[in-house]
Specification:
Blueprint: H1 12-21, E1 25-30, E2 33-37, E3 44-46, H2 55-70, H3 74-82, E4 86-93, H4 104-127, H5 139-147, E5 149-150, E6 158-165, H6 184-208, H7 213-216, H8 225-234, E7 244-249, E8 262-265, H9 267-284, E9 288-299, E10 303-313, E11 322-331, H10 334-345, E12 350-356, E13 364-374
Parallel strand pairs: 11-13
Antiparallel strand pairs: 1-2, 2-3, 4-6, 4-7, 5-6, 7-8, 9-10, 9-12, 10-11, 12-13
Helix pairs in contact: 2-3, 4-5, 4-6, 4-8, 6-9, 8-9
Length: about 375
């Protein structure tokens, strides 16, 4: 028996469910076995149940063909078939080593980056978006991390598959009770959305040579200093900036509109993400802030979003201020809000000086007394 040959029986029903989730279609039967087809692939014969002595051999032949079609091992495929309630984000690294191997220091940094990306995604689900997460994590975040499993690598340089149950043992997300426990699906959805926002911000920054303001604008989507630092670690940090990919596949028992997507980060993008981590932390710890620009959005009764030049002051006397193109929300008095409406109408700029709101779920400046003016 080959090393990849399954030692336990294959469930034909589970295999059929997997094939449906991967866009295979059933087209009739042949000698009692269902015929499954997908464009560009050989047909598969799958018995609907274990009934005859050679049904196991037929199932094994189908597994072998399917694994070959998907370019992965039969063991990995069998694990996916047996675990239909697991989301799988994967992290593909490109170290300077043979495919399937990775230098130990790079592996340690990558595992820490994966751990921190999952941790901050869980914290975002639990507490909402923040520029910087500090302090101890909750017992619910700890429990979520305890339920996450890391699989073995597969061909394609070095790939970490992370297996995340969509819900804690014994519970279904569709019947999710109102408790403080964290749904794995919610956390991985947050990781996907925030990773996509980081990818878009990094792409824009690299292509437009626009600085780091694009990162400031997406903090409301869960982009934080912690997440950017964790993602940069996947590429070796600011020192090495190696390219990497993040991909997502979703548990087939829980329908989702999210795509089975892969986000590729080039070396310049990793460098920008590492710089964004430092900027967002500085913004979070800053002693003051100012923005000069035009009204982008009005939100009654008292908030405006201003887009323009964002200046972040350092709490340290030795460090100078940072400037970046970006956008920030500002809470105004009724009189100031009316002045902002008139400034928008007259195409005039605003200048606001104050401090960042520490617990806001968006990048928000609280104006200092006399810190609001129409230019």
């Amino acid at each position: 028996m080959g090393l990849d040959r399954p030692t336990t029986a294959i469930d034909p029903v589970a295999l059929g469910g997997y094939l449906v989730s991967r866009a295979w279609e059933r087209h009739g039967s042949w000698r009692g076995a269902d015929v499954w087809q997908k464009a560009g692939h050989a047909r598969l014969l799958v018995p609907p149940r274990i009934e005859y002595p050679d049904d196991d051999e037929l199932l094994w032949a189908a597994i072998r063909k399917l694994a070959e079609a998907e370019g992965r091992s039969t063991r990995e495929l069998l694990l996916d078939i047996a675990e239909p309630a697991v989301d799988i984000p994967f992290f593909q690294l490109h170290p300077n080593s043979a495919s399937g191997t990775i230098p130990l220091p790079a592996a340690l940094k990558a595992i820490q980056g994966i751990h921190d990306a999952l941790k901050v995604s869980a914290q975002t689900v639990e507490a909402g978006p923040k520029l910087l997460y500090t302090g101890h994590r909750s017992k619910y975040v700890d429990q979520f991390l305890h339920d996450v499993r890391v699989g073995t690598t597969r061909p394609g340089s070095y790939i970490f598959d992370v297996r995340v149950p969509v819900a804690p043992a014994g519970q279904l997300t569709l019947d999710w009770p109102m408790t403080s426990e964290l749904s794995g699906r919610a956390v991985i959805t947050q990781l996907y959305q925030a990773s996509k926002a980081v990818h878009s911000a990094a792409t824009y920054s690299v292509q437009q040579l626009s600085g780091l303001g694009s990162f400031v604008e997406v903090t409301g989507e869960g982009v934080s200093a912690n997440l950017c630092r964790a993602m940069a670690a996947l590429g070796g940090g600011a020192e090495q900036c190696r390219p990497f990919d993040i991909g997502f596949t979703w548990a087939r028992v829980e329908a989702t509109d999210l795509p089975t997507a892969t986000l590729s980060f080039t070396q310049p993008m990793v460098r920008v993400v590492a710089r964004a981590a430092a900027l967002l932390e500085k913004v979070a710890r800053s002693g003051g802030a100012a923005i000069t620009g035009t009204v982008e959005t009005l939100k009654r009764p008292d908030s405006v979003q201003i887009k323009g030049l964002l200046v972040t002051e350092s709490p340290s006397a030795e460090a100078g201020p940072d400037t970046a193109e970006g956008a920030a929300w500002v809470s105004l008095t009724p009189t100031q809000f009316q002045q902002a409406i008139e400034a928008l109408r007259d195409n005039r700029s605003l200048r606001v000086r104050g401090s960042f709101a520490p617990d806001s779920r968006r990048l928000e400046i609280l104006p200092a007394p006399g810190g609001f003016e129409v230019l």
